[in-house]
Write a structure and sequence with these properties.
6 helices; 13-stranded mixed beta sheet; 316 residues; 24% helix; 3-stranded mixed beta sheet; Phage tail protein beta-alpha-beta fold; Jelly Rolls
Length: 316
């Protein structure tokens, strides 16, 4: 191994050590300052830090408590990060995808009530009459119009059915017909978003559309009552919440805070000058205070908590 490649490997190993220290529930200020000093001491140190973040986000299993992996700027090239990642293959494990299923699933009783809603930060898992698994995300308003029909007024659900008997999901924008497989539906800010991860094609018909369209597996789409947006590839990260995780990759910090606020009661405010920062990682949704600590430990930001329900995030 050349001297330069050996040096790159040593930097990646050091970056992993710093991350492990900052992953503790209560990293000390001295650790934060020392890590920041190491990253700023040499541009190659920062590259090693970034490539380690990129590699860790592809782990199939997140570390206990949470894995917080934070990218400071969206300007670093993906090629640079992946190029460095190759040097650290001996110390970093890679896996094919993010697994949603627990070894011992804990699905609650059957969904039989006429209406089901979740509070802020609450995630419920239930079974439908046909054995389909239904997960209901935070702050979601959902009801049952019939045994095989759900009405999603606001929020987000995930449905896995092994039967081709159709399940109908109505949103304020139209109807989705699901005939087996894994599917998620989100309705927020007047948009209905559907992602199909496996199974048969789902039929989508806006309330003002003349014809329905078919959504095939591994694709997602955003639709309104009279129009559909462009087709995109389904992203497994979007349903990390089913396992209680917020999984993001290169998400602008402002968007990350907006998503985090869905799981936290109160107000989260962020300064506009932080638009340059982005976040990559796997975060445990059951502890939003810890997530804020992790952001503060790894980004040049201040987190001011005036009360439990009023948090302000600004530049250092």
């Amino acid at each position: 191994m050349s001297a330069s490649r050996r040096a790159d490997l040593e930097r990646i190993q050091q970056a992993a050590i710093w991350m492990a220290r900052l992953w503790s529930d209560e990293p000390t200020q001295q650790q934060r300052v020392a890590c920041e000093a190491w990253r700023n001491a040499d541009p190659d140190n920062e590259k090693a830090w970034q490539c380690t973040l990129n590699a860790q986000t592809r782990l199939a299993m997140a570390p206990k408590n949470s894995t917080h992996l934070i990218t400071r700027s969206r300007t670093m090239s993906r090629r640079n990060m992946l190029g460095l990642a190759g040097f650290g293959a001996g110390g970093l494990m890679f896996a094919g995808g993010y697994q949603l299923h627990d070894n011992k699933p804990h699905w609650a009783g059957y969904l039989t009530s006429a209406q089901l809603s979740t509070q802020t930060g609450e995630i419920k898992k239930l079974r439908m009459h046909n054995g389909a698994q239904l997960a209901v995300n935070t702050a979601t308003d959902i009801s049952m119009s019939a045994a095989d029909s759900l009405v999603l007024n606001d929020g987000e659900i995930w449905l896995e059915s092994r039967s081709e008997t159709p399940v109908y999901i109505d949103t304020p924008n139209g109807r989705i017909t699901h005939r087996g497989g894994q599917l998620s539906v989100r309705h927020t800010n007047a948009h209905s978003k559907v992602s199909l991860f496996s199974g048969n094609a789902a039929k989508i018909k806006g309330s003002n559309m003349a014809d329905a369209m078919l959504l095939h597996p591994l694709h997602k789409i955003d639709f309104r009552a009279s129009e559909v947006g462009p087709l995109h590839s389904a992203n497994i990260n979007d349903i990390g919440w089913v396992k209680g995780k917020l999984v993001v990759q290169n998400m602008p910090l402002a968007d990350f805070i907006a998503e985090l606020s869905r799981y936290r009661t109160g107000m989260l405010r962020i300064s506009p000058e932080l638009a340059d920062l982005s976040v990559t990682g796997v975060f445990t949704l059951s502890n939003t205070d810890l997530i804020l600590q992790q952001l503060r430990a790894s980004l040049p930001i201040k987190v001011q908590q005036l009360t439990r329900y009023w948090v302000s995030i600004s530049a250092v």
